Amino acid sequence: MHKYLLKMSLLGLALFLIQASAQAQEFDVLKARPMPQISTIPPESLASQTDIHEAVPAGDLNLAYSVRLPKGWVMSKDAGLGELRVSKVVLGEIVRYYSPPKLDKRSSFSIEASQLNYEISAKNWFTNFILSNGYTLEGMDVISDTKVEAIYVYIEKDISYVVRTIAEVVGTRVILARYFVPYDFWTEEKAMQAGCIHSFTLTNPERRPVEILDHYVFLDLIEFEYPISWAARSPGVSSLERMEATLISSSDMRILTGQIDVQVISRKQEGVSVKEEIARLRNRIASRSDFQTGERIELITTFQFQPEIRAATVEAYTGTSADDFQRVIGYEIWSAVLVEDDYYYLVAMLTPARTNDFLTWARNAKTFERVVESIHSDVSDKDPGAAARREQERQRREADAVLERPEWELTPEKQALKHAREKARERRNRRRGIVEEETTEGEESSPAQP
To answer: Whole-angstrom Cα distance, residue 227 to residue 231?
Structure first.
């Protein structure tokens, strides 16, 4: 089934990815230039030359802001606080301020919002924003996983603007604060631009996950988190020495957009080579779509692991193929090896390449990061809710066992339970965008974990 879905995805995404590839090549998404160094205005000078503007747009406390802007700036009547226009697809403007005119040009400051339906870092969200709009990025500083500052060039009605911006992920939104300066005036205004952008704050930011998280539990020993927009599958646990699970992301009823395999191997086994095991896992996830693991793209050193992890390595590789069509589309294979006292944790991901479908890559990378950062053992010692989840897992396994037995072996009560479980599974798969397909030759499907 996995191979079938992924081959369908290659066909369904082909034209889009080829177009996106040319766009993403405009700058190296791994090596955005740092911000240019600009002398800032002393705090006392900034205070004397600016006014504080504070508001609660549309009465939404999570959008409340404070910012300093030069004296004489006025709020646009077309972006009043009473009419909040927030779109799930494009940025919606909350408020805009204008400077007094200089000849036929004006500087301006705006605050905009975009709804998030998936987890993504601020850096990757903003990079996708730049790529999608074709702007020229001059520099970017990553302040945190949820906040970046950047400068880029924007052209409107034949006028070039230098834009300094803050992009911040707050709860289920991205807030974008932008200070526009016509290029002709930027040299004299750039210090004020920097001071005002640095003064911008959200006074009551929302703090909650973008997506609802689920927990995958290997018996009562090990668990990790993942967004419910991904479907979890497992062949079942037959041995405590080797356990595995798969996460599937699908954008619709037929296209697979990402896959993550998790493997847990006991360190008590003799003759286990971690190097061979992770290479085997990478090649296994790649071979499902006729890829092979190619050259290493990067060694990732930014993940924060659980306290019991003694050592870890996270890497990204290219996916190579002898097929010209697949080679044009491009995929990446990520892998992580984590070592703790009793187990090795091996995690591998297959995702469209960042140079071809940056947004899908960014979403998959964030899910991979959450899985790798959250996986840990001794569940009951860390989480008071672990016992309840273990009981739910036990009941689920018992119910799944009923599904696998022929009806003639079951009592009428068990037959009714089997039918109810099958209907519940169909509803769950439709909700998560996953369709149970007939498996390809040599492959068996396995039930999804709730």
So the answer is: 9
